[in-house]
Amino acid sequence: MVGIIGEAISIGWPIFALLIGLLFYYQATIPDPVQKKQVSFKLMIGLLVAFMALMAIANYKTNFYGESRLLPVSLVMITIATFIASLYFTNISALMKIGGFMFFVAAALSGYGNWLPQVEGGFPPPVVKLDFQSMSPQQLGDEGEKIIFGGLGQSKVQGAIGKGQCPLCHGFQKGFLSERAPNLFDIPGRATKRLDEPNYHKGDPASRPSVQKEAFEGSGTAENAQEYIAESHACPNCYVVPGFGVKGTNDTESPMPRIHKPPISLSMGELAAVDTWMYVREGLEAPGYEEIVASYEKFIPEADRITETAEDDGAAAGGVLATGEEPVNEIFTKGACIACHTIPGIEGATGKVGPVLTEGSNAPQRLKDGNYKGKAKSVREYITESILSPSAYVVKDFPDNQMPKDFGKKLSAGAVNKIVDYLSQLKEGEEPPPIE
């Protein structure tokens, strides 16, 4: 505030000097005390109006390029100034009132739009075509870290999540107690031991107690550590690590999605990069690119493998997951929402990582929760806030920092609006709305 006042004075000091000079002039030259008092009062009002107008300009200038949401305050100050002027300058009263009303409407609309949760825009990142096959193990591992955590060096940053979305459920640091999925520290070393566990049934998939026996008919089971890792990614239901199955299934069903399928959809090259990172980060010699790809070919049928062309098409989107032109069910899929949430009416949205998204019933209750510290005032605002700032309110029994915080960059405003429209209509015990 002090800075804005200083800015206003620096901009308008000639006006202030003129008005103060006129005030002293009339005080000295007008003999009639009544007239002198009237003129002086109006000059004081003019000084106040000018000061408010200059404060509005200074506020606008100061906050225009920042993240402050105080820009509508400028319009409010001008509105007040014009109404004050209309009361004391009767010859232009009608003009001032009309102007004041226009500024009032503009301030109301601007204030409403400015205080809504904001969707960040910006230019999409440049498209870079990667030749995974020609990379060294270290380069391939670096790309794997980017896929898992969203950037090089991000593996040590809490809450960092990349395209693969693995940190939503898995831990990667030694001693980290994962609640939703096994800790993947030293997984290359532990993979061989998994093959010898009783419920794995190496070489005999028909004896498995899990809901899915094989990745596809005739694929069989893994024979070595790398094949175990590939099978775990391509067919999470084939073997569930004890204690990490879907609740109520007795560890026969996994909550993990197949990461070569939507919504994650990693290509063969990306899968090889992810696996390479898990070896390299622990100082181990990683299998060669061809060997890793061959391990996935054993468990992913050719029709389901993402080709080089499909990978390039995905990259052409420039990092924007959904433009808003798609039907809402496709937006949920592209945003990977279906991997973590159960969403009534959306095919494949049976995730268990996050809460069920019946927000038409949930949102009103959470807005009244004493633990709610967000800024939303309505169901739509709450849903928007949950997408763009998921840590503003963390649903009970679900840990913080599980949901990505960059959907403001990866989803267009139109895509967010479609999600909000759909979720706001979902109520517990009622039929979901039709997908338009």
What would you note in describing this structure?
With 436 residues, the protein is mainly α. The chain folds into 3 domains: 2-115, no CATH class; 132-315, no CATH class; 328-424, Cytochrome c-like domain (Cytochrome Bc1 Complex, Chain D, domain 2, Orthogonal Bundle), CATH 1.10.760. Helices cover 48% and strands 0% of the residues. The chain is built from 16 helices and no strands. It has helices at 2-29, 33-63, 71-88, 93-115, 137-149, 187-195, 225-234, 268-280, 289-297, 308-315, 328-334, 337-340, 359-368, 379-388, 407-410, 413-424. α1 runs antiparallel to α2 (33-63), α3 (71-88) packs antiparallel against α4 (93-115) and α6 (187-195) packs across α7 (225-234). The two termini are 48 Å apart.
Key traits:
48% helix; mainly alpha; Cytochrome Bc1 Complex, Chain D, domain 2; 3 domains; 436 residues; 16 helices
Structure summary:
With 436 residues, the chain is mostly helical. It has helices at 2-29, 33-63, 71-88, 93-115, 137-149, 187-195, 225-234, 268-280, 289-297, 308-315, 328-334, 337-340, 359-368, 379-388, 407-410, 413-424.
Question: Separation of termini?
Answer: 48 Å
Oligomer: single chain
Protein structure class: mainly alpha
Order of helices and strands: HHHHHHHHHHHHHHHH
Major sheet characteristics: none
Number of domains: 3
The gross shape turns out to be elongated
Radius of gyration: 31 Å
Which percent band covers the strand fraction?
A: under 5%
State the share of residues found in helices, binned by percent. 40-55%
- Tell me how many strands there are: 0
Unreliable residue stretches: 309-318
Q: Which whole number gives the mean pLDDT? A: 82
Number of helices: 16
